[in-house]
């Protein structure tokens, strides 16, 4: 093709048709420019297609992450509800007058003493932010995703902070009685040790430490439940927007 055009130009020059030569040269340049523009347009369309395909992949990953978060919230909430029932049953002991302190302390063994920090398993949003691909997401969804991720991180931090406080109170109690096994099993045949551990003032101190720990734990769990509701609501709103984008 290049040889063909070159031959035409040479013929025009050899025949002295300078005017026609320049017109042809201009026409050839125009054709080249048009060809370049078409190639660029095709390349842009190809890039847009790749970007849209990647965007679709991220949307589907986000929806999968939301399902993981929902399952995690359901599981974690179920554990909290179970502990709430146990705490309520424990509190009812105080409605019975003149309960021996030791009896109240012994009932604390029925409580849930595991401190479970909230830790979401999904990571697509943070990956999008870290790689810069978050810019591929349309603005209205992007802003909501970033806000959701920030709130989830705050929820994890609040949970850890409250549970750490509860754990400190439990640690203080352990400095008084050692461990549950120590108090209720190991020293049950050692009257002097039992007398020291369960000396009246020490019992009160122990019970207060237990109460402080459980109170912080319950507050932490209540806070998590409240935050879970907002997270679920935000995810539902984003899901609707993402599904609309997927249908386009």
> What is the number of beta strands?
0
Outline: rod-shaped
Strand content: under 5%
Biggest β-sheet strands, sense, barrel: none
Commentary on this structure:
This protein is mostly helical. The chain is built from 8 helices and no strands. Helix 1 (2-14) runs antiparallel to helix 2, helix 2 runs antiparallel to helix 8 (200-247) and helix 5 (139-177) runs antiparallel to helix 8 (200-247). It is rod-shaped.
What brief labels describe this structure?
8 helices; 248 residues; disordered N terminus; mainly alpha; 0% strand
Which SSEs are present, and which pair or pack?
Layout (H helix, E strand, L loop, with lengths): L1 H13 L3 H74 L9 H7 L16 H8 L7 H39 L2 H7 L4 H7 L2 H48 L1
Helix pairs in contact: 1-2, 2-8, 3-8, 5-8
In short:
The chain has helices spanning 2-14, 18-91, 101-107, 124-131, 139-177, 180-186, 191-197, 200-247. The chain is mainly α.
